Amino acid sequence: MISGQAVYEFYNSEKYRGNELEGENAVGPTPYSYTVTDVYTFTGWQVMDTLTVNNGATLNIATGIEENNSFPSAIEANHVNVQGSITIEASQEPCSEPNRLVICGGGTLTGTNEGSIIGAGDSILELRENVVVSGLTLYECGENNSLTVFTHGDATECYSYDSNESKWVRQQNNGPEKEYRYDEEGVSNGTYANEGDQTLSENAYWRVEGAQVTFNTLTMQQNAFLEIRNFSDAETIHYGKITYTSLVASQGAVLAFETKENIPEQIKSSLYDDQGNQLGSIDQINGFCEFEYDGTSKWVMRQNGSQEPALEDNKYTVRFDSCDFEGNPQASVKVSEESLTNRNSYPFTANSPLIFTLTPPEYRRGQIPVVEIRQDDTFYSSTASVENEKLNVSKNSDDTYQFTFIPTSEKGFEVEIWWSEYDRFGPGEGEVCFEIASDEANTVTLSQATEKTMADPTNSNCNKYIYDLSSFSTLTMTITVPDGKTLDKNASRFGEYGSGNSLIKDTEIPEPTNNQYQISITNDKISNTNEDFFFFEIRFKGGEVGGGDDPNNPGTDDPGQGSDITIEQARDLIVAHEYAYHASTADELKKYLAREIYYEFIGAGPYQNSFEKLDLGITGDNDSAKIESIKEKITIDSAQKSAADAVNLPYYEYSYELQAAGEGTSKVEAKGKVYYLNSDKQYIVKTGNTYNVVTIKKTGSDADDSYIMGDGDVKVFGNGASIVGSLETGSSHAEAYHITQEHSGFGGDGFFPGVVNRLIVCDTGFKGARIVGAKSAAAWDFQQSGIYGADKPADIYYGNDQITINSIAFDNLQNDSKHTILAVSVDTTKAKADVANITNNGNGFTVFFATAYDEIPLKITYGDNSTGVIDIHRVGLHISKNHIESGKIDVMHGTDHTSNYSVPQSAGEAVYASFYAPNAASASGVQLFVTITKSNGTVERKIVNTTLGTGTASQGTDKGYADFLLWSGTETEYNSLQKIEAIVFAPGSEDSFGGVKVGSGSGVVWTK
Predict the structure, then answer these.
(1) What b/e sequence results for 410-419 when a residue is b if at least 16 CB atoms lie within 10 Å of its CB, and e otherwise?
(2) In 833-976, which ranges are E strands?
(3) Which string of DSSP letters, residue by residue, matches 51-116?
(4) If you compute the radius of gyration of the chain from its CA atoms, what whole number of angstroms results?
(5) How far is CA 657 from the centre of its chain?
(6) 449 pLDDT exceeds 80?
(7) What H or E segment, with its residue span, contains residue 547?
(8) pLDDT in tens, 768-812
(9) For residue range 880-889, what is the model confidence (pLDDT) as tens digits?
């Protein structure tokens, strides 16, 4: 059997669905290990630690078939031990993706004499970086297509099965690329740090693209080629950069740099031109340069070093922008149904036609792409006037485009694709281009005209203007604000494409004159930069729908809750939402999609009031009937599509018709994707533009075993998942969220599982610790995530006498030394050493608090020898505000409704405090010293010695509470408040002072 916690489908004599299996041999944290002891066929996708196929057992990896659709299957494992047999079957129509077995980087593939791995058709055995192979012989093609044993050491590559020879054969240059590149959601500070040494083997070709890569010792063997390139997305050029402590190079090694910014500081003095002159200054180098190592500590520029390196014979590469304005991959390029990846190389045969199929991104649908190819000395173009140099691009019936190119020789070539003439339009030598976009028409005028201008064909408010740098000294842009609008300075952006969103040389947006803004762009502000392309994105307050961040797509006004909305805006809101489900039929998908649209937009959600003002022809007297009405208007394409974007999931296409009720009314169609999830316990976490599929392993409000590292805004979707609340962590560098998979209104009909998970989202620079065993006051239950940021205060319930500090283990980080905690101690620069006693319990550090102290600064030492301080504040007073209605206020302890307390006013506002103690007895008998500061400077001090009430919180029966009224008054009086401070103390007796309660410190401050 296969053991582990997952959902599988097996196919023997007939199809049936497996149930959720227990992790019988699960070891350590997930992913689990699995053992095959019989004959089973696996379909789907699963990540695991160790896969063992016992002697006599067989595991078949087969194409999945469901409702006449097919999808590829893959197993990714760190370690594979084959004592029996693994069979990887050929893909089945209409699925064009191969089935595969993947050994993850640094893993092992072990076979025995009885063990075998057998492939068929297009099946793939993929070995990633530094995989150790034993007991299995791999082959490569030698001279005259003879097969020889592959003995190059590093087995990193994809292998195809030769059924005639019964051997796995290396797919040369078709395997995993030996590249370090930043994640597509990262920006210019994406990093890859290798803690050890790195060797570029003989004749190896590596590209570092848009990332910052750090090695200790970098060794380049003979003829190794290291290319450092920049990466461009829709807005920004991300500069590649490489650093190292030492560099060891052999004869013929080559370093290639795309621009002068990329050249490592350590190598500047070793650069020479092709005449043998030492370059000295980095400013003498521009464009694309290649330097070859001559064996005498010199790197000499190649004769043609300023040009692109020649492609290999019989290889071509394709360049195209695959993303939409928000960075989501939409476009695709195929040759004979094979999907091509931007900048990768592919084989071709001279005089054999290559048939290209182009799918433009959504924002360029209807525009004829521009294509250019240069092979040998011939330049082919879709805009060429000479017939034998013209590439004829034709439109297909499905809105894709097609052209055929016949290579005339074996020389390598590059295909460049722009999705419209506007995208191709750009500056030449000595010119600069300004791209100006506005979300309102006729709002921008320029002081200087130019003949070189082009309008965006799909956005009439976006234009490009090209100027000769020598032709003007100052260009003034005048922005006229439409009636009823104001310029949104936060949303408007002015910057260089090469340096993100920075203002051009600190040019700020001036104040307006007569409702007009003027921005002066002077020659000296741009002539000294490395960029020749600048963008101006002008927005007016009101926001946008589906506009994203790109100046080419400013979008339209966001209607907001309760405002008027057009049917087109309703469509855009629905399409901008993302959907993913686990479903067995198209009809089930339609049901899920209809319910989510209803509860996100029509029956609930932030746009509910806006949608209610549209009569969309939705009928029915209750939720179920209205959902069924929406379902009737949805069409699902039953053919599952292969993964083709950043989500990396198969998907279905949907179409939802929105039509206002009544004859002759507007009708629009919302078209989008519904992603397919392999389990109903999965959801997708999107940080920025990076998508992560998370499988729920535990349920309940404390199920926080899944962590994602990332930067950017967080969005959750899939199987009805949504963020229901944010959890404060005490750090600006970390966020935590409760995730639920049951929308309010879906009820108990089993539509979604209704599980709750907790997700921690941290940026890559986060330092902190996980605090466990910490009791929380009832009012804090929802706010505390257990993750605390270094150099930030951490509020802990004062009833704790001890806590345990553990390292933060992020699932997706293999080398997580900078989050591994080596030691915890009291920071004696801030407090006495006796404020806490700390012991190492083997699984973390237990901190015992001294009774008399409420501030405990803890110094954390991490695995990379850096340190940080977590300032523990032991508090027990929670101050809140609520409305007074009919002379009473509701006091809430977390989600525990306590009671309606009577107050002097019949209506208005009240500020109250809840003091939490280990039990009800210790909560009673205390008083508060209260300081009230008003906005006019008036200060009032008083002792509050009467409670509203006392009791035991139902959330955690070991917590007692005492509620106090600090202030009450009318709404006008409330507006005069500035802050309220409170200190808890015990009154004592005539002969003694009871003392300030630990946990109050110098006072808890509430600010209006």
Answers:
(1) ebbbbbebbb
(2) 836-840, 845-849, 855-862, 867-875, 877-885, 888-893, 896-902, 907-917, 927-934, 939-944, 949-952, 960-969
(3) EEE-TT-EEEE--EEETTEEE--EEEEEEEEESSEEEEPPP-TT--SPPEEEEEEEEEEEE-TT-E
(4) 33
(5) 31
(6) yes
(7) none
(8) 888 877 666 555 543 345 777 777 777 777 777 788 888 877 766
(9) 888 888 888 8
